[in-house]
């Protein structure tokens, strides 16, 4: 029986990996030096919320989307909806406090900037993501149709 060989990356790759761990450690120490209990509680709560609530929700939504594309016989087009939806939802998750307006006063006092417009910008970015995906889908569909027309008919 052959033992798997442990291979290390290039010296540059190892240097970048060690540097990223050092930076993450530094950020963790700085983050925990304030109110470490609330930070730890936030991390645990975020993990529980993600694993027990969000993951099943977007897993079910993805299965429904995939089922709809399979029913239409176009499973290969599912990524043209999946990618912009995932990016849009990621932006919503990251910027939700400002999009919802829940921390507008705190944001304005901390930055001196208005929190107005985050919802409109998120909606605009979402529209651009889906619009760009639709354009790519149409271009690919046209290219595939053109290639099918240029292909000689099969001889039986």
Task: Describe the fold and architecture.
The protein is mainly α and 156 residues long. Helix content is 78%, strand content 0%. Among the domains are: 37-73; 78-145. It has helices at 11-32, 36-71, 79-100, 104-111, 118-150. Helix 3 packs antiparallel against helix 5 (118-150). The radius of gyration is 24 Å and the shape is extended.
Helix content: over 70%
Largest β sheet strand count, sense and barrel closure: none
Radius of gyration: 24 Å
What characteristic shape results from the CA principal axes?
extended
Q: Compute the separation of the termini in Å.
A: 51 Å
Counting DSSP E segments of at least 2 residues, the number of strands comes to 0
Structural class comes to mainly alpha
Low-confidence stretches: none
Count of discrete alpha- or pi-helical segments spanning 4 or more residues: 5
**Portion in strands:** under 5%
Q: Return the string of H and E elements.
A: HHHHH
Mean pLDDT: 87
């Amino acid at each position: 029986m052959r033992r798997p060989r442990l291979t290390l990356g290039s010296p540059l790759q190892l240097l970048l990996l060690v540097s990223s761990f050092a930076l993450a450690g530094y950020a963790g120490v700085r983050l925990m030096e304030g109110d470490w209990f609330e930070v730890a509680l936030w991390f645990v709560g975020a993990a529980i919320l993600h694993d027990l609530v969000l993951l099943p929700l977007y897993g079910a939504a993805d299965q429904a989307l995939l089922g709809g594309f399979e029913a239409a016989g176009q499973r290969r087009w599912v990524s043209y909806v999946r990618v912009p939806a995932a990016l849009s939802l990621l932006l919503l998750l990251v910027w939700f406090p400002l999009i919802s307006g829940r921390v507008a006063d705190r944001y304005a006092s901390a930055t001196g900037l208005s929190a107005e417009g985050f919802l409109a910008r998120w909606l605009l970015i979402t529209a651009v993501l889906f619009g760009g995906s639709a354009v790519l889908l149409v271009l690919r569909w046209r290219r595939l149709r053109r290639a099918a027309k240029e292909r000689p008919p099969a001889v039986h």
